[in-house]
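Hey team,

Filing this mostly as a record. A colleague (T.K.) asked me to run one chain through the structure pipeline before their review meeting, and I want the input and output archived in the tracker in case anyone asks later how it was produced. No errors, nothing strange. Just documentation.

Input sequence:
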Amino acid sequence: MGKALGSPTLGEMIKAIKFQNEAEEKYVEYPDKLSSVVNYALLQHTHTFDFDLGKKLYKIALKMSPENPVLLRAYALFALASCEPPRQQSWDKCQDMLRNAQSRDSNGDKFQVCEDSFFHFGVIQNPSNRLALLNYALVQQCIKANYELADRLYRMAIRYAPNDKLVTKNYADFLENQLPGGLYFKEDIGPNGTVESRSKVFEEKAEWGEWVIMIDKEARGAKFEKFWFNVLTSKCRWVPPSSWKAVWKNRVARSEEVRCLGNFKEWYDRRLDLVYWQDVEWNAKPKSVLDDPVVRAERADGEGKGEEEDIAMTGEFVFINPFGESDDEEEG
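Output structure:
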């Protein structure tokens, strides 16, 4: 985890320590100055973890400058971390605030000092504190879109505090929003590695190549049970590969040509220990034939039960010997 978090530079450390040491003093001296209020709120939020005082300070700051992008991001992260009720209403409001901040500071440059000096340095100073880990996980989730690191931070926080309601609720919402249709959904995202290691193969087909459908019997809900898994790369996805044509292209590239008879080539996929045949004249066939899919499978997510969809390159590749030979004949 240390490498993933990264080490602050000497300059960042000096700046962060200065912010911490001066935050309360400057707030007492200049209680009507926006920067004094925000920095003192951030101190409560990320280091002392006095969420009651932090909320009070953030509310004061928002009255002073309701459109400040640094403040909008900081308070949105605070409201999410503290699970302000009602949760769904608070969640929607926080997403609006984050979008507003993004429109005013698209590169996040204005928030960077805040991130380095408070959120990042907070977890560097308190690597086993559940709230420090939660705060930085939310930065990765909501601002950096580094979902892999966010997941690792959440799991680390849960390891230290498995029953903490703030951590578990935020992690549950994070996972929910990584599913298809969710705020953080990406086609190449699936469950984390710990889920894959405890799961079993649910379904596999020759035409899927290195991809299989796994099932996690310990999933937190039915929607999290099944996922796609690449047995060669150990990559997980919630949805099937976006291009089965690309999967087959890679498969042919790694396979060994056994022989060629007529318009068929016989290939051996050594990594999967599987033989298949390719119709090399397939692309020259009439379009009406090309439009008649042969290789099909039900969707892994269970939606549209009974419906089918193409998941391979139709009939270009087959797994029944087109030469009319039995295995015994080939061996003989």
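Quick notes for T.K.: The chain has two domains: 2-176, 187-332. The chain is about 50% helix and 10% strand.
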